[in-house]
Amino acid sequence: MSFILNEEETMLRDGAQQFLAEEAPVTALRHLRDSGDPVGFSRELWAAMAGMGWCGILVSEDHGGVDMGCAAAGLVLEQIGRNLTASPFLSTAVMGASAFKLAGTDAQKAAWLPKIAAGETVIALALDERARHNPTHIKTRAVKDGNGFRLTGAKKHVVNGAGADLLIVAARTEDDRIHLFAVSPGAAGVTRTPRRTLDSHVPADISFDDVKLDGDALLGGAEDSEAAYRHLLDIGRAAQAAEALGVGQKAFDMTLDYLREREQFGVAIGTFQGLQHRAAHLYGELELARSLVRRALTTLDTQPSQAPLWCAAAKAKATAVSRLSTSEGIQMFGGVGMTDEYDIGLYYKRAQAAGEFLGDDAFNAGEVARLSGY
Amino acid sequence: MSLDAFRTETRAWLEANCPASMRHPIASEADICWGGRRWTFASEDQKLWLERMVEKGWTVPTWPKEYGGAGLSKEEAFVLKEEMKAIKARSPLDSFGIWMLGPALLKYGTHEQKLEHLPPIARGEIRWCQGYSEPGAGSDLASLRTRGVLQGDHYTVTGQKVWTSYADQSDWIFALVRTEADAPKHLGISFLLIDMDQPGVTTKPIKLISGKSPFCETFLDDARALVANRLGKAGQGWEIAKYLLSHERAGIVSEAAFGGLNPVTAAYQSGEVDETGRLTDPILRGDVARLTIDGLAFEATLRRTKEEGDHGEGVGARASMLKYVGTELNKRRHALNMAALGTDGLLWEGDKPGDGDPAKAWLRSRANSIEGGTSEVQLNIVAKRVLNLPGA
Predict the structure, then answer these.
(1) Which residues of B touch A3 (CB under 8 A)?
(2) Which of A148, A315, B301, B352 has the smallest count of CB within 10 Å of its CB?
(3) In terms of DSSP bridges, do strands A166-172 and A178-183 run parallel, antiparallel, or are they unpaired?
(4) H or E, element range at B160
(5) Are the beta carbons of B148 and B192 closer than 8 angstroms?
(6) Total number of domains in chain B
(7) Which of A203-212, B28-37, B358-367 tops mean pLDDT?
(8) pLDDT band at B82 (very low <50, low <70, confident <90, very high)
């Protein structure tokens, strides 16, 4: 485990930086928003990301991936955050691939992982049923029916839910244990209600009304399905934290530029100590968040048993810091920071939405307390 | 020797040589061995432990052998630290000579100066204190007015220093002195090593809100300092002081990270946990959780900074960020410790050992963000040197 990027990681980061700044900058998000895109991301971009090899970043070479690990995925996510890139990378290449790796049977892995790596499928995770993240509040039921199951329940705010080709659904079986199921959104009884959210993404509320599933819809390869589910959440938290870090860092960089350029009272406003101290404080907070994010991701790769605490801490910190960075950005930009023309407000909105995914800072602080034994 | 072999050998040596009574973490000031001409050992074991470690050069493991160290690599020194920690072996010797003056001497001293001053530091024979701040020169340290007049082979030094920790128990003082009266303020300061065993040097302890303190006022009245005991060139003192302050900050920072104080332990003492071990007050629990998160973040950031340093990326002014974050974190830790203790934390003195310690430590922690450069000075440095903001 190291905080220093190796050569491969440095190349990946530099490549992601260049590619996303050219192919998926903030103007691309504005275009999706202003054109009223029904799913909130671009299939062409997704295909191009697959061409970069990113879709298989967690997929083994046997299954057509490059298998670089969570720390590497975090580097791409940070750049996604910096550019406010709308894409199903986190839900598909990170969490979708992880769901199959952690809980899939060999046959399921062989069927789905190559598709993920090739960018041929978009996956969404249908987990939460309440407005605030609560991973144990799962009322959706999968009842045994012949060789298959009948699925009934309602999921809230499924990220990328409007455009997904496949849903990974958390549901309780008759023994009351949580399992993951792979469900086609086109199956009879599945209803998707898209939600347009403040960050111009299009998640969906999805209901399952007695949906008939084949037996192999159950991701049945894990010894302990609930442990696999929890581990999947940890991966998602660290990954989302990495994106939030990128959002916060870019907002900070933009704000610093503005402090140097904007003049009032005949001087750059960055000369004022009142703003300098806030910027310097923010710098420290971003550095703390950066260390936790990297620590959580490398721990997932090298000592997964130690990961839950670091992932919760990273998610809590990155959520709080990206919110602070973007809100301080608006304040320091002043009036223009409130306008739609300036990008800083878009960063503020994304920080809020990313913060809610798999638990905000308050939720994850609670996890840290629980995992620390107090 | 490979690191693994070094680890095995170190483990065996420590096992054979660290006295049992030295295998407890330092619990209070009374457990620390500071050394010096006037030092009286707290126990035979304390003396024995120091002697054995001195023999190995392990009081200052990375210093060259000729100056009293063991010439260990950074990696070997880290292994030694880990192995000491594994058996809870306490540090055999702590001193400002080791933490602050030593690194400055190694960087700026002549071979003769190193030979004269480093081995007595390594052996715990000479205890040093730091003469920086003055009544009129706190955050604006470079405005200091203690004056040194060159007279042949020595300077005659006159002025007053304040916040000189343990000056009343120290043998020598390293001091910033204005020797170049006509030079611009940052360029007129020299770094002088002054023997305190002379009539021109007197000290007086300062009492703080936390009670008795190690801080003193130090009065220099025609004190003599040999030119041979000037570190660096005349007027180079400010540069050396800045270098040394970064070591002081590193010391304060590592205390903040590894202080060991835990509000959860305090809550057990005051009975504020339920039968499952959960803190009973949910809001306090949340505050403690956010402290835990920032503690983990700070620990990871220190580790990252170290790796980046080893990797050749300069730490530089980022040390100011670490100092700011670390000291503010430590203050929060103490404040939450007091909150978890409730009224038990208000005790000032009592019959049991340790009575009154939490309150005194809490009060003392308030100085963390003042000493070694205030938080506000650190933020100024970050704004100017890290963020490159204009006009700072």
Answers:
(1) 300, 303-304, 307-308
(2) B352
(3) antiparallel
(4) strand B154-162
(5) yes
(6) 3
(7) A203-212
(8) confident
Strand ranges in chain A using DSSP code E only, listed in sequence order: 123-126, 141-145, 148-158, 166-172, 178-183, 190-194, 204-213, 263-264, 267-268
Claim to verify: residue B31 and residue B74 sit in the same structural domain: yes
Could you report the per-residue pLDDT of B111-135, keeping only the tens digit for each?
999 999 999 999 999 999 999 999 9
First to last CA, chain A: 28
CA-CA distance, B137 to B132, in Å (whole number)?
Answer: 9
Using a CB–CB cut-off of 8 Å, the residues of B that contact A are: 264, 267, 273, 277-279, 285-286, 288-290, 292-294, 296-298, 300-301, 303-304, 307-308, 311, 318, 321, 324-325, 376, 378-380, 382-383, 386-392
Pair (B265, B366) in one structural domain: yes
CA B60, chain centre distance (Å):
14
Interface touch A273/B380, C-beta < 8 Å: yes
Q: Residue B374 is part of a domain; what is its CATH number? A: 1.20.140.10
Q: Distance (Å, rounded) from C-alpha B278 to C-alpha B271?
A: 11
Architecture field, domain A7-121: Orthogonal Bundle (1.10)
- DSSP codes of every residue in A290-333: HHHHHHHHHHHHH-GGGHHHHHHHHHHHHHHHHHHHHHHHHHHH
Decide: helix, strand or coil at residue B89: coil
- Does the residue B324 lie in any domain? yes
- DSSP category for residue B180: -
Query: For the structural domain made of A225-371, what CATH number should be given?
Result: 1.20.140.10
CATH superfamily of the domain spanning A125-217? Butyryl-CoA Dehydrogenase, subunit A, domain 2 (2.40.110.10)
Q: Which domain holds residue B68?
A: 3-94
Picking from B283, B296, B303 by the largest number of A CB atoms within 10 A of its own CB, the best residue to mutate is B296
Query: How many angstroms away from the CA of A227 is the closest CA of chain B?
Result: 22
Chain A CB contacts of B275 under 8 Å are none
**Any catalytic annotation for residue B248?**
yes
Are B118 and B68 contacting, i.e. CB atoms less than 8 angstroms apart?
A: yes
- For residue range A109-158, what is the model confidence (pLDDT) as tens digits? 999 999 999 999 999 999 999 999 999 999 999 999 999 999 999 999 99
Q: Which residues of B touch A287 (CB under 8 A)?
A: 301, 318, 321, 325
CATH number of the domain within which B151 lies: 2.40.110.10
Handedness of CA A8, A13, A14, A19 (dihedral sign): positive
The pair of three-digit structure tokens given for residue A169, joined into one six-digit string: 């659904």
Q: Are residues B69 and B135 in the same domain?
A: no
pTM over 0.90, yes/no: no
Residue of B217, B248, B275, B299 with catalytic role: B248
Cα B218 to chain centroid, rounded = 19
Considering only the beta carbons, identify the residue of A3, A267, A368 that sits closest to B307: A3
